[in-house]
Amino acid sequence: MQYRKAMNVATPIRAEKTIGHTVCPHDCPSACALEVDVHADGRIGRVRGAAANSYTAGVICAKVARYSERIYHPGRLLVPQRRTGAKGDGGFQDISWEAALDAIADAFVKAEQAHGSEAVWPYFYAGTMGQVQRDSIERLRHAKRYSGFFGSICTNMAWTGLSMATGALRGPDPREMAKSDCVVIWGTNAVSTQVNVMTHAIKARKERGAKIVVIDIYDNPTVKQADMGLILKPGTDAALACAVMHIAFRDGYADRAYMEKYADDPKGLEAHLKTRGPDWASAITGLPVEDIEAFAKLVGTTPKSYFRLGYGFTRQRNGAVAIHAAASIPTVLGSWKHEGGGAFHSNNDIFRFDKRELMGSAMLDPDIRMLDQSQIGRVLTGDAEALRHRGPVTAMLVQNTNPVNVTPEQRLVKRGFLRNDLFVAVHEHFMTDTAKLADIVLPATMFLEHDDLYRGGGHQHILLGPKVVEPPSTVRSNLFVIEELAKRLGVADQPGFGLGERAHIDQILVHYDIGYDRLKEEKWLDVQPDFDTAHFIDGFGHPDGKFRFKADWTGTPAPNRPPKSMGVQGAYTALPEFPDHVDLIEAADAGHPFRLATSPARSFLNSTFAETPSSVTKEGRPALMLNADDAAALGIVEGDVVRIGNPRGEIRLHATIGGGARRSVVIAEGLWPNDAHLDGEGINVLTGADAVAPYGGAAFHDNRVWLRKE
Questions:
Q1: How many CA atoms lie within 13 A of 616 on its CB side?
Q2: Which of 315, 345, 375 lies at the terminal end of a domain, its last residue?
Q3: What is the number of domains present in the chain?
Q4: Is pLDDT above 90 for 162?
Q5: Which of 157, 516, 569, 654 has its CA at a distance of 20 to 30 angstroms from the CA of residue 560?
Q6: In a domain, 616, yes or no
Q7: DSSP letter, residue 592
Q8: Does residue 69 have a pLDDT over 70?
Q9: Which of 310, 345, 380 is the last residue of a domain?
């Protein structure tokens, strides 16, 4: 407790300081290179982007720039705690690390004895993107044959749809946005969530006169920066893409020679699109015909058009179809040929990491069941299909995620965590909604307090994040917890255990002529493929080198394809052969006339930063954005309390009028802690966990609701 008093109140800053070099660890494609002022008393000061890194370019988001507010927060967890009293009552007592780890190991052994090894479910995600601290939990899972974790909550639909198109998850160098004549930012509120995208897009505008087009579902901060802002009805992106390609064929913008060489069936696509013109798309998207025509002409007459496709595609039930259609536009136009042209979503495929030892891959048993991350509520409440028709989950270790707040079907999730026969250990920084329902809570190091390795899915750098400051003496890293549990569970002699962070980093980088020590000197490694590879000049990633206008929705590999034991998912038989709008969305109906999207807030990152005072102050309170005409029709004014609901549940929010969404579309920016809401329940009460076609996912922006003034 002395640390809390010493380190979590303001102390004088001495003049002497050093600069630490590290990486932002949070769940964001930017993986920003950071410079951190470290003062003589061992405390951090200012955090800023590394100017020498060609992608970060000295710019980071404000919430990370204020990181001292988080690391020295007075509410930070500093000692292990054991629950006292009933679950959810909030009673905890301090215990030692030895007692806490012994209790977890004992609970895991008892769960295995009663129900088999699959009764234990290690549950984790991207609270840190550090390779060692995030993924070491998989090594323990494989060694102990615990239930598997199918990570479906973030990337599946976008990665699947793009893989169907290009056959590889890579694309033109993201820094080429600065060399483009038209940057199309589609499905990402980059000002709030990927600030570096704006760095390079605005550079193109200033230096080249480039136009910035933003396509989204409401008038967010990125739309406000655009030369052309297109606000769609949610889930209608593919209709816009089809109309743009229709116009390209109609008006001569299509590069037929390029398609003949690089695409599978351009003639079939052209025939299919004959009936997918701007009038058809206008009725679906809500966009005026003239806006669709203007956008199509702009990209059709601008060879260097760079399509930056975001993670909004991963939040809707037809997201895979939508990103496949959007990526088809630069293929019809031949934009890939040009520096500053083509389409980019993620560079995931370019990094040659060897994580076999880190994750214990040699110990993986394919017969062990895989449980869907997004369906945790169903798993913990005994749904037979979600459990793969096997036994219950009765013990969990949760690292790097906050499922009671962030996962769909929140009421089911909470009901599951309140089971008296479920043991839960949570390793965390703060007493999150999930930690409040745990039996054991362990305090975790933050990224500045341990070593790790990062990669930038939104760019091309491998970056080292070395420890910059000493952690409190009473907190421990994720790797420490995994190693100590391995000892207590009898698997510490298995491959990959017994190694520190630096040894793991050296092993992960074995395919590169660099290790921890040299990377610490150089700070990052640029592994961007050459132009021909990045732009698919040597052929796309499919075996025949062709871009696929005709998607094989069940036969194409993809980074997040579920294992055979889970199979293809959702309404995959309804997926179209060619790019097309498909009504797989949770469409509004008479009883639920509004569409709800749970979009990111600028000052939060998922549930992270919702504890820092400046972020809370900037965001205000949980609110629901309403179209002004909808509000007037319902007699709702600014600040009124409204109730929204669907068959999953209902919650109350304060109304805010405006925000630029179309009629019958409402936006709840978050993610706020559950107890910040009027009734102690968060927005994910209303989101669904049904698997999305074809390879799974969670459609957070795709919900129908009713709405009334309270």
A1: 11
A2: 345
A3: 2
A4: yes
A5: 516
A6: yes
A7: B
A8: yes
A9: 345
